Structures are given as structure tokens and as C-alpha cells.
Amino acid sequence: MTVRTSRPGPRKAGLFGLLFLANTAMFAVYFGVGGPLVQSAIEAADPVNKVSNAGMVAGISAIFATLFNPIGGALSDRTHSRFGRRNPWLLGGALGAFAALWFLGTASSVVVILVTWSIAQAMMNLFQAALTAIVPDRVPRELRGTASAVAGVATSVAAIVGTQIAAAYIGSVAGYLLLGAGVVASAVLLVLFSRDPRPGEYEIVVKERRSPLAALADFGSALKHRDFMWVFVGRALMNLSYFMVLMFQLYILQDYIALPSGVTAVGGVATLTMVNTGTSVVATLIGGPLADKLQRYRLFVFVSSAVTGLAMLILLLSPTWTGMMIFAAVNGVGFGAYYAVDTALVTLVLPNPENAARDLGVLNVANAGPQMIAPLAAAFFIGLGGYPTLFIASVVVAIVGALTVLPVRSVR
To answer: What are the subcellular locations of this protein (predicted)?
Structure first.
């Protein structure tokens, strides 16, 4: 099926503002719930086995994220209702996530935490699939870096919002409800104030009738495209490196770093997040537009990937609160610049823009998949040689991820 839209020209500033709000709300859930709230709930339920249980919950719930993002993308690509292509999935995913988060906030056992967080992850990824497709749907190629910078800044702001709300409402359902309500509100704003093409505004040409199962079987077809495959591998490795450390940041502060008097582990996570976010925002605001101006996306991705990985050496060489603060700043620069430009690079190597949501859903496997593997890998490395072994492994994975951008040929 081929869809040709008339692509009505939205007011880009307004659209970017809505994308900023939606990405902020979405990533606030991932950072706040998936980090301190879930980990604290797991610790309260079974403090002795908190590391293994946290790895198990993060890993299994990430399977749902991995599956539901490309499924949601394919379904939204095939949706041609009077409400638009993306709107039903934005609203449906947001409302489903809110309900799941509400139940998650009342969970008191590891099993219930696992089930409810997995459902919430599934619903959030239906929302995310529709949201990420808006950029290739409605943003011109020459503004993709700027659009990616908007999403990157939103991710950084979300890290502060999510962790601060989590720190303020540890042990309470209120944090879950506030973060879930933010996603619902952002979905409503997108539906009301941005234009999703309706039937009659795009022409549907049926080339071949395919069943939904056959369409789902096409997910892996994008990986046959050489440049898309390399970007996929690089994104997967970078996320694996990043989340192996990030997912255990609370426990690193509890068990490895000597915290100053008056600083709690949860409060330390919130402080580090603010430092990381400040440097990340600056790097994102500079990196995205500068990559657009120079049209040199691969170079920016390579350098920022290397910086992100090498920042882990700070934790190895200086396992102190000061070292953690320096790490947060340097890592923020690297990862902020990386995501700002790599997201633009992704949209420029899509094999077929008509299947944008589906292929971005496939690429999101490189986001969610490492989150499934990272806690298990981190627990293995911690068991093998403690946190220093984890940091060394993270550096190696990030450097290999940086090298994968070099074979990309269709984009400079």
C-alpha cells in the first residue's frame, strides 16, 4: 500500500513545541518510573534480591517495549480513519499507559510490579511509535536535525522532571499518576493543535493486499537496507553502553560511592540528573542545528558516541561523589549531542518514507532491546568483578558503537 499525502504545511514552531511537550512527558515516565520509582518499589518488596530483581523486571518489561513499538508503528501506518493516522494511537497508548501506571503505583510485590510495568511499557510504546513518526511525516529533510534537537532537549528536560517527581513521591502512587497524566495531556494537545492528515487529504494506492500478519512479517525488511542496518547496530550498542550504567545508578550510589553527609541515594540521582541535563541541553541545542548547517551527521555521531563511552572512565578512575558529578557533566555532553544528531541521521536513512512509523518502530528495537539486555549484562559484569568491570565493559561497547557509523554512505 502506498500513501501519498498532500502534506499540508504545519507551522513548524508550533509543531516543534508540541513535539517538545510530548517527548518530555514520554521520557519523564521512562526516567522517573523506570528508574527510581520502580527500583525503590522493588527494593521495598525484596531488599535482599534488589539487583537481580531489578534486572529481571527491566529485562522482561523491555521485551514488551521491543515488540509493541514496531507493532504500533505498523498499525498506525495502516490506519486511515477520519481521526487521522497517528491520533488514535497517540490517545489510545497514552490512556492505556495511564491506567497501567496507576495500578503499578499500588503494587507491593515483585510479580505485580513486573506485570504492571510491562503493560505500561507496551502502552507507552504504542504512543511512542505514533509520536516518532510525526517527524518524517511532517518535517522537511532540511529541518530534521533541528527537530531531533527539540526531541533531544525534551529528553534532557524529562530526565529532570521524571527524577524530581520520583524523588518527591517515592512510595506514593502520586508520582505514577502525575507522570502518566503528563503523557495523556501531551497526547490531547497534539491531537487538538497539530494536523494529522485525514482521508481525502491523502491518496491511498493499493499495490498489493496484505494481511496484518504479513505486514508484521515485513518488520525486518528495513534491516536489509545497508545504511539503516548500520545505524540500527550503532544505536543498539550506544543504548546498551548507556543503560548498563544508568539502570544501576541508584544502586551505584548506594553500594559503590561514598556519599557526602546529607545526600541520599535517591536525592543523588536527582542531582546527577540535573547536572547531566544541563550539559546535555547545551550540547543538543548546538549539535542538532550545527549538523544541519554543516550537513555532517556521521562526524557528529562518531565524536559524540566516543565521548559518551570514554566518560565511563571517570567512574573507574574516581569512584567519588565529585567523580560522579564530573561524569554526569561529560556524559551529558556526549549523549545529548549523540541523540540530537543520530535521530536526524535515522530519518535520513529510512528505506521507505511511506513506511516511516513501521521502520522507526523497527529502529526502536535498538532502543528497547538494549534496555532488555542491559540489566542482565550489568548484573553479570557486577558479579564478575564489581562495578569497575561494569564501567570497562560499558566503555568498550560504546567505542564499538561509535565505529559503526563509519560504513554509512548515503549521508555525510
So the answer is: Cell membrane
